UniProtKB/TrEMBL annotation:
Name the UniProt record assigns to this protein: NAD(P)-dependent dehydrogenase (Short-subunit alcohol dehydrogenase family)
Record key words, sorted: Oxidoreductase
Family to which the UniProt record says this protein belongs: Belongs to the short-chain dehydrogenases/reductases (SDR) family.
Lineage top rank: taxon: Bacteria
A Pfam family: adh_short_C2
Organism: Mucilaginibacter frigoritolerans
GO MF: oxidoreductase activity
Matching PROSITE patterns: ADH_SHORT
Length: 248
């Protein structure tokens, strides 16, 4: 990893894949600001990881306040080198039962907030013509999964937006990439799969490596994309899925 200390923002950085990423960044001497809504969780994580980790309590649903958030971060910490758009929510519901409000809530949290935050961070990165933005997709954007229509729409758009952002921003020194996690062993996924044995069987049967991934697997991919080792990589969607997206 690079020797120079960089500054990263990880949304949803106090739990799950975001927490694994935060830990990996701190281990590699990257100063990391975690953003989330639960101050208790944020404070506990920051306290446990030491001086290289700090936090901001913020609801990314407050789109109009995001520009001010980034202004504050730059005033306090200087240039932002890395943005990881990890925060997101899901909803399991039959297509015909999804309300307009359900759909818009998922889209706003998982897509619109990513757009607004990336736009504001990119403005700051453009001033130094350097930086990297890493989005998080899902297997839901790689193939059809029932009962997650809103989530699928958002994550499919994230992949398209990643490519469009990369084409526009890369000539100006900003790389934009995306990681598409497969089925990862987190508390949330364990609860969902353990309560649905048939779904778990199907997941594992189409995963060539025949096991769930670990949060650290996603963190390693994000670390790579954030590093100078990926300095010629932009606009890609990397499935980290044990082969699930190509499994038969």
């Amino acid at each position: 990893m690079d020797k120079k200390i960089k500054l990263a923002i990880v949304t949803g950085g106090a739990s799950g894949l975001g927490l694994a990423t935060t830990k990996k960044f701190v281990e590699n001497n990257i100063k990391t600001i975690i953003i989330g809504r639960n101050e208790k969780n944020l404070a506990e994580v920051a306290g446990s990881l030491g001086e290289l980790c700090t936090y901001k309590v913020f609801d990314l649903g407050n789109l109009k306040e995001i520009p001010q958030l980034i202004t504050e971060i730059i005033a306090e910490h200087g240039q932002i080198d890395i943005l990881v758009n990890n925060a997101g929510i899901n909803q399991k519901k039959a297509f015909t039962e999804v309300t307009d409000e359900d759909f818009q809530q998922i889209i706003q949290t998982n897509l619109t907030s990513v757009f607004v935050l990336s736009r504001e961070v990119a403005k700051a990165m453009l001033s130094k013509k350097s930086g990297t933005i890493i989005n998080i997709s899902s297997m839901a954007a790689q193939y059809g999964i029932p009962y997650v229509i809103s989530y699928t729409a958002a994550k499919s758009a994230i992949e398209g937006m990643t490519k469009a952002m990369a084409v526009e921003l890369s000539p100006q020194g900003i790389r934009v990439n995306c990681v598409a996690p497969g089925f990862i062993a987190t508390n949330m996924s364990a609860k969902a799969l353990d309560s649905d044995p048939e779904r778990k069987r199907k997941v594992l049967s189409r995963t060539p490596m025949a096991k769930l991934g670990e949060p650290e697997d996603i963190a390693e991919a994000i670390l790579y994309l954030a590093s100078d080792g990926a300095k010629y990589v932009t606009g890609v969607i990397i499935p980290v899925d044990g082969g699930n997206s190509i499994g038969f």
